[in-house]
Amino acid sequence: MRGLSSERAPVPQDPAGASHPAHPIPFGRAPGSNGLAAGAHAVMAGVTRIFGSAVHALGPVDLELRRGEFFSIVGPSGCGKSTLLDVLAGLSAPTDGTITFEGKRVRGTVPDGVGVVFQEDASFPWLTVRDNIGFGLRRAGFRGPEAEDRVRHAIDFMGLNDFAGAYPNQLSGGMRQRVCIARTLVMRPRLVLLDEPFGALDQQTRLLMGDELLRLWRASGATVLLITHALDEAAMLSDRIGVMSSRPGRFIEIVETGWPRDRTSAIAAEPAFGEVTTRLWNTLREESLKAMASQRRVAG
Ligand SMILES: Nc1ncnc2c1ncn2[C@@H]1O[C@H](COP(=O)(O)OP(=O)(O)OP(=O)(O)O)[C@@H](O)[C@H]1O
């Protein structure tokens, strides 16, 4: 296992070096099987987002996501994390700067190959688990045996076999979130953006879901960007963690964990895990105090 390393912005350039999964891939393809060279997968260059004339929410931000990596973002509340994700996904236009995904400019719409999972339970209450998971496929015109096969695999992979015909109100919060994740991943995105997907879950379920997310990440070969408030979650799951400043959010440190690709939540028992979380907290503490002080000024 490599040791912890950390650096201050700017973000380094490096090939992905992702290993190929040895088992079947229910949700996607092996890294590189789309014919694209390893390296930068998505790039934000000089990106800012200003709301109206007064709220400078983000940036300037430079970020290079490496193909197949698991990258998490932590930062003080209100620093612009969700704004960054929205802009990267093409859901919101940047005020300045450029975003590219697989070498193409992102403008106005979510590019083909990008999937987004939000914190709030986005399952459709009137559809069964099976139909929820197949929703995007049907909308994209996938029908017949291939679509059915993908949905069946997804249900199986997520351990939802006994609930395929159930409705969301018959499921636990963790299961509903699994349905939402499966619904995104069944589209086989090459870049998955997750905004606090486990925010509403209890600690135990979060840990289990984290392991599941790692399993999916390995199986799909996708690049993952996760936004989280939980430092231990970021430390446990990620290859790299970007720490953002208080608003307007910028990257003040990128921590590289050096975890092996086949890691699980058991990594939390390693001494190096404590080093990662301590480093994150040391950087974040000062920024969180700044954010709280400025919120107090606004309130007062
Ligand atoms: N549509 C909008 N119009 C005006 N201001 C906005 C809008 N969306 C976000 N903001 C502001 O931009 C700033 C960043 O918000 P954002 O939601 O990106 O932060 P965050 O880091 O994700 O917050 P949290 O950690 O609390 O979820 C905040 O001050 C927020 O009030």
TrEMBL record:
<feature type="domain" description="ABC transporter">
    <location>
        <begin position="42"/>
        <end position="271"/>
    </location>
</feature>
<keyword id="KW-0547">Nucleotide-binding</keyword>
<dbReference type="InterPro" id="IPR050166">
    <property type="entry name" value="ABC_transporter_ATP-bind"/>
</dbReference>
<comment type="similarity">
    <text>Belongs to the ABC transporter superfamily.</text>
</comment>
<protein>
    <submittedName>
        <fullName>ABC transporter ATP-binding protein</fullName>
    </submittedName>
</protein>
<dbReference type="GO" id="GO:0005524">
    <property type="term" value="F:ATP binding"/>
</dbReference>
<dbReference type="InterPro" id="IPR027417">
    <property type="entry name" value="P-loop_NTPase"/>
</dbReference>
<keyword id="KW-0067">ATP-binding</keyword>
<keyword id="KW-0813">Transport</keyword>
<dbReference type="InterPro" id="IPR017871">
    <property type="entry name" value="ABC_transporter-like_CS"/>
</dbReference>
<dbReference type="InterPro" id="IPR003593">
    <property type="entry name" value="AAA+_ATPase"/>
</dbReference>
<dbReference type="Pfam" id="PF00005">
    <property type="entry name" value="ABC_tran"/>
</dbReference>
<dbReference type="InterPro" id="IPR003439">
    <property type="entry name" value="ABC_transporter-like_ATP-bd"/>
</dbReference>
<feature type="region of interest" description="Disordered">
    <location>
        <begin position="1"/>
        <end position="30"/>
    </location>
</feature>
